What does this fold into?
Amino acid sequence: MNGSARLVWVYLLFLVILIVATKQACEAELTLEKLENSAPHSTGKKGFMLYEYTDKGFSIEFPKDWKVMGGSVVWGFTDCKGEGCPSVIVNTIKYNDTPTSDQFLSRVLKMVVDNCDNYKESSSTTMTVNGLEAKQIEYTSTPKFNTTVVNSTYLLTVVAGKKYFTLECSVANSDRDKHFKTFRDIASSFKVIE
It folds into this structure.
């Protein structure tokens, strides 16, 4: 199995664990919506393409040399091989209850901590992303299902009414400085659309 395929399976396994843990921990009906590929459009930002998922209620910009991989929206460099490749996962989550932004972040972080070893938060802040309150966490961890690579992750949670989104940008910790500016650019482009 090549590195890109392994990365997709690792993240898909992580998402399954995330869903099961949240459902049990929160006693909420949680559904991870599978996102269909969107036809990209050019943007004003040099080297980026806009992906619009009107049926899922969001749009986001990615570097034009990235591609859609896997069943969820997982982006990674087309020439990336091996573990720890830069990737972005966007999830839309539905709950029966309506957690606040802080409660949503707590639920997501509980899933992360439960499914990772050596979790260490490096920064946490509340910010605004295109007019919406967002919670940003940066952390390092080793997923329990992958003990060979320590990942650096840029996590963003956004609540828009009854819509809940997570944006997880991960890369091998050794490549953090090379990719975190791009992750921040991707996160700042996230928009909820009706």
